[in-house]
Design goal:
mainly alpha; single chain; globular; 3 domains; 22 helices
């Protein structure tokens, strides 16, 4: 054992990567070959196999005995609570809410303990897997609740994930401890896991191309691993805090921030790509209707890096967490607002996301700032974008390019507190960058919101559209219906004349056929 640890220490020192991070990356890579048998196993065997693999990961590799016990306890408590309420036929909305707050409270305590004991971010402890489990269990609770509601009261997604009957403990724990998504997610809904595990029981073959897709994702993960390993230390947010950074010009500082932002995201691209590879190799995450692997995907890298607004960033980043927040917080709070999501739903969602990440002021600063920037992007898109769309194609391309640059430069600025996790350090970084992100966002906010320009532009655009519609209707009314040249089809002693008329107002075509039989006419 000492020799093994010594060897791991040597590798860690040689590559400059902490031991726990090496273990994590090693397990993420190992999960793919471990997932190969899953596509050909019966459901019961999958549950047992997953539980055993996850137990080995947590107990033997990371030595997280206490954490493993906590995960088991949280899972069992959730299942028993739902079981009791179902037996009493008393499963109301307060039950999943109690489960949600209980799970989030337990996670917050562990986050606080980590902060109190000043545990290094490079140390893998139980909160990582617990964050994934919180999403799984709270989603599971709401899915069981939805399964007891009238079908017509549910939306399409809720109907697809609703759980009519509580699964047995073995299947439930197999879901909770499904090892491909244990360490870093993504948190798939129970309905997806159940379909996957029961596929072999129903004679379905494993999805096509799972090996090729897994290899592509491994290659993607290794590419980002190489980028982070070679350049991550040099291009980091922490470097901005060093005194040597002051020797750089402002443009050099700006460029450093952009590369540092990409390198920070690359670490997530690395682990989520490897996790998706493991899910794909198991056969889980394949959408048989769409014919793709979107069920196990947590990121869309291209869409993030070329995003024109913050909605596009948030929609494609940590996608399963976004679904969890939407389904377990946003929609559920909206019910309290008369099924019309408003300010309370939005703020509850951002608050839950910040609390899920940990009780640090830096998280709340980052997420609240993100909320304002998303709202600003919505205002710009609604008030300014229509005028570029009405102009030339070049103007539209210029607008799109400016939006990409604006989104990326402010995004890399926005995440400074999220990465550094310290308000004081964040203030130093912002000082050294002349608070450019606040200026870029603040000026449009003042002009559009405080100055009332957004309301005026929207009103002007609406009037313009209305005027254009009126002109189009006038032109259409003055135009005569167009009729195509009749087509005559002869057959024996009959002839059929086919004509088509286009209505200039709505563009609809009317086709008529007249058949001549001898001297008689038949029209249809």
């Amino acid at each position: 054992m000492d020799r093994r640890l010594l060897s791991l220490d040597s590798v860690s020192a040689a590559v400059g990567v902490p031991k726990d991070i090496l273990k994590l990356l090693g397990l993420l890579l190992l999960s793919t070959p471990l997932s190969i048998p899953l596509a050909n196993l019966r459901s019961r065997s999958i549950h047992i196999y997953s539980i055993l693999c996850s137990t080995v990961f947590l107990l033997l590799v990371f030595n997280l005995t206490s954490g493993w016990i906590q995960l088991v306890t949280s899972s069992l408590a959730t299942w028993l609570t739902l079981k009791i309420q179902l037996n009493r036929k008393n499963l109301k909305s307060k039950t999943p809410w109690l489960i949600f707050f209980g799970l989030l409270g337990h996670l917050t305590i562990n986050h606080a303990r980590r902060l109190f004991w000043n545990v290094s971010p490079d140390t893998v402890e139980i909160t990582g897997s617990q964050m994934v489990l919180v999403m799984k269990l709270s989603t599971f609770a709401w899915n069981v609740y939805d399964g007891q509601q009238p079908t017509e009261s549910l939306d399409g997604y809720q109907r697809s994930t609703a759980i009519k009957e509580l699964p047995g403990l073995l299947e439930f724990f197999g879901y909770c401890f499904f090892f491909p998504s244990l360490l870093v997610g993504p948190a798939i809904p129970f309905s997806d896991y159940s379909k996957f595990t029961s596929a072999r029981d129903h004679g379905l073959v494993s999805p096509p191309g799972r090996g090729a897709h897994a290899l592509r994702k491994i290659a993607t993960g290794l590419l980002f691993a190489a980028l982070v390993g070679l350049y991550g230390g040099q291009w980091s947010y922490e470097r901005i805090l060093e005194d040597e950074f002051l020797a750089k010009s402002w443009l050099q500082r700006l460029w450093h921030l952009q590369v540092a932002g990409f390198m920070s995201r690359a670490r997530y691209y690395l682990v989520w790509s490897l996790a998706e590879a493991s899910l794909a190799m198991s056969g889980c995450g394949y959408d048989r209707i769409k014919g793709d692997w979107s069920g196990g995907r947590n990121i869309e890298i291209k869409e993030i890096e070329l995003a024109q607004n913050y909605k596009a960033v948030f929609d494609n980043w940590n996608m399963k967490t976004n679904i969890w927040l939407r389904e377990c917080v946003y929609k559920r709070v909206a019910v309290m607002e008369g099924n019309k999501p408003g300010f309370l739903s939005t703020m509850a969602t951002f608050g839950a996301s910040a609390a899920w990440h940990g009780p640090l002021p830096a998280y709340f600063v980052a997420f609240i700032s993100g909320g304002f920037l998303q709202a600003l992007g919505r205002s710009i898109r609604g008030a300014i974008r229509p005028f570029f769309l009405a102009s030339s194609r070049i103007s539209k391309m210029v607008y799109d390019g400016l939006c990409i640059i604006g989104t990326q430069t402010t995004l890399n600025y926005l995440v400074v507190p999220f990465v550094l996790l310290d308000i004081g350090s964040t203030r130093v970084v912002y000082n050294r960058l002349a608070w450019y992100g606040h200026i870029i966002a603040g000026i449009p906010m003042l002009i559009l919101w405080a100055g009332g320009l957004e309301r005026k532009l929207r009103k002007r655009h609406a009037s313009h559209i209305k005027e254009q519609d009126k002109k189009a209707q006038v032109v259409a009314k003055q135009s005569k219906p167009t009729t195509m040249e009749p087509v005559v089809v002869a057959s024996g002693n009959s002839k059929t004349v086919i004509t088509a008329t286009t209505n200039p107002i709505d563009g609809q075509k009317t086709i008529s056929m007249t058949t001549v039989i001898g001297t008689k006419l038949k029209s249809t």
